[in-house]
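Researcher: Structure prediction, please.
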Amino acid sequence: MSIRSYKRITPTIDSSVYVDDSSVLVGDIEIGEQSSIWPLVAARGDVNVIRIGQRTNVQDGSVLHVTRKSANQPEGFPLIIGDDVTVGHKCMLHGCTLGNRILVGMGAIIMDGAVVQDDVFIAAGALVPPNKVLESGFLYVGNPAIKKRPLKESEQAFLKQSALNYVKLGAEYLEEQA
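Model: Predicted structure follows.
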């Protein structure tokens, strides 16, 4: 795996985290317990920070980045991802904040300043524009993403189960490396 320092800051990764050898993690990144980073993920915490919670998985080909601090945006836009989040294949997360128990569908894009509250399902291919807030408990679809309907009870349960499935898979991959 390629874990690189930037300005003498190296990613901090819990020992229970699976990181695929083909992923690239650079700079000020912290990854919580039992999370997983899958093939070809690029995460660059160079001009701001990336924080990934516990039991969160970032799947193949996803890109994680941030926006630098500026006069117009004194804090810039870090990338903050909560616990029990599933980021599907080939997603782009850029300077946004994701709460807990979220599923980001394949190919979705979430842009600077967007905030996704807890318990949200973002459909594949959705585009969440800058500074948009996605309210807890809903399915969002489209370009730009719109609130489609409240989540069903089974969908809310799936948010947590999806994360737990990847906790198990990540542990199996770590065991193979041992």
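Model: The chain has one domain: 2-177.
Researcher: Thanks, that helps.
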